Amino acid sequence: MLLKLTTLTAILPSILAANITVTVGQNNGLTFTPAQITAAIGDVITFTVLSRDHSITTTNFAGTVCPPPDGGVGPNGFDSGLWVICLSINYRIHMSTHSLSDLDGSQPNFRYTVVDAVPHFGACKQAAGGHCRAGMTFAINPNSTFTYTQFLANARAS
Ligand SMILES: [Cu+2]
């Protein structure tokens, strides 16, 4: 019985985990769509980069919001690194690895598995924070104290 319970406990999170999709730079905009994400521990958020030169990077809620720092703001923060996409010849380069891949034209994905229930705030770090200050921001599990609306205002003012 103990073995079966252990097995069930190991399997359940993967069965119950949701896959949440977010598009980055849709229609060449400086946007994450949706900008507010509600996710449970174990859920996987897949960010798909649709236009050139963006990153998915956690940052501070207030104060120095833009640009988000290399490596992101933690705990449990993250940083996709900058994605450079040349749509005309269907290639992509990940700036931190300088890898050239996916000549099939598929879009780069960055996946983050949610490991806690606290709010995380993020933005694109391109253009020394220019995209971030223009509103290219997102929130995972914002709450009534740490709202996305306030975070966005903090980003624009930073
Ligand atoms: Cu950007």
Automatic annotation (TrEMBL):
Gene3D superfamilies: Cupredoxins - blue copper proteins (2.60.40.420). SUPFAM superfamilies: Cupredoxins. Keywords: Signal. It comes from the Eukaryota. The keyword Signal applies. Residues 1-17 form the signal peptide. InterPro entries: Cupredoxin, Ser-rich/MCO-related. This is Uncharacterized protein. It comes from Mycena indigotica.
